[in-house]
Design goal:
By secondary structure, this protein is mainly beta. 12% of the residues lie in helices and 37% in strands. It contains 5 helices and 18 strands. The longest helix is centred in the N-terminal third of the chain and has 9 residues. 30% of the residues are buried.
């Protein structure tokens, strides 16, 4: 699966070993970017000229570049001409896997042999697992029920309860925040859409995850809602949602990391609202 893992293969002309984040490529000459710079481009464009992580997005079809990349030792840098552009390529010291831990196949049983919603690599995506930490929101009591939670002051208008356990019982019509067992890194030039898994959806459980933007990394906070009129128990380790990696037709000027997104580097526990 080329988006998630790149293995050596001269026949298919893919990048050798490791993951998409194993190489940093800087464009030392690019007529389009230089033109933007001459026209008082914003700082983000200048930063892109100075340090552009191309990964596999635009260099995947250049066999010479692929061969050079495979020959580099960790930390070594080479300069090469590719498609009329001078490129500097560096084998990174620290490899950042796109998904960790990673299963190269779908697994549909737990360690006891019990059937579970599957997790692991699928045809065009990856099914991540449910972790063991959960957060629920609760309203603040008021004279006639509960205080209305305002989107501008949501954290002040609600209280949170945290649970660390191998399972969680979700009451009817209730939202619980969960977290993935896997840590995700989205390479530059890619973004990730999170899709519902069939078995989970047919249980009446809605799992909402906003898109994972390019160069976002961390553990995924899962918004889990029980649409049923009865409680449902979910257990740690089940496949909970599917990630679909999409390659952009061009690199963005500013990634999630570039702009310092507030949900960057999320820990292995649910992260609530940040206003």
């Amino acid at each position: 699966m080329n988006i998630l893992k790149s293995q050596a293969s001269q026949e298919t002309n893919t990048w050798p070993t490791g993951t998409l984040a194993d190489w940093q490529i800087r464009m030392l000459s690019d007529p389009v970017m230089l033109s933007m710079k001459a026209k008082n481009a914003p700082p983000s464009a200048k930063e892109r000229i100075a340090s552009l992580t191309y990964l596999i997005l635009t260099c995947n079809d250049d066999p010479e570049l692929i061969e050079i990349a495979g020959s580099l030792a960790i930390g070594e840098t080479a300069t090469v001409m590719s498609a009329g552009v001078i490129i500097e390529i560096t084998r990174l010291q620290d490899k950042t896997p796109a998904i960790s831990p990673y299963s190269d196949r779908l697994i549909s049983t737990d360690e006891r042999g019990t059937k579970i919603p599957s997790y692991g690599e699928s045809s065009y995506g990856y099914d991540i697992r449910l972790g063991n930490t959960f957060v629920s929101y609760h309203g603040v009591p008021a004279p006639h029920g509960f205080m209305t939670a305002d989107s501008d002051t949501f954290n002040q208008d609600t209280s949170q309860r945290k649970l660390v356990a191998s399972e969680v019982e979700i009451p009817p019509q209730t939202l619980v925040l969960g977290v993935s067992k896997e840590r995700i890194y989205v390479p530059r030039g890619f973004d990730v859409t999170c899709m519902a898994k069939s078995s989970i959806a047919r249980m009446g459980i809605e799992v909402t995850v906003t898109p994972l933007e390019t160069e976002w990394q961390g553990y995924v906070t899962l918004e889990i809602f029980n649409k049923n009129h009865f409680p449902v128990i979910l257990r740690e380790g089940i496949g909970i949602t599917q990630l679909k990696f999409s390659k952009a037709s061009a690199n963005c000027l500013v990634s999630y990391a570039d702009r310092g997104g507030k949900y960057q580097d999320q820990p292995a526990e649910p992260v609530g609202v940040k206003l």
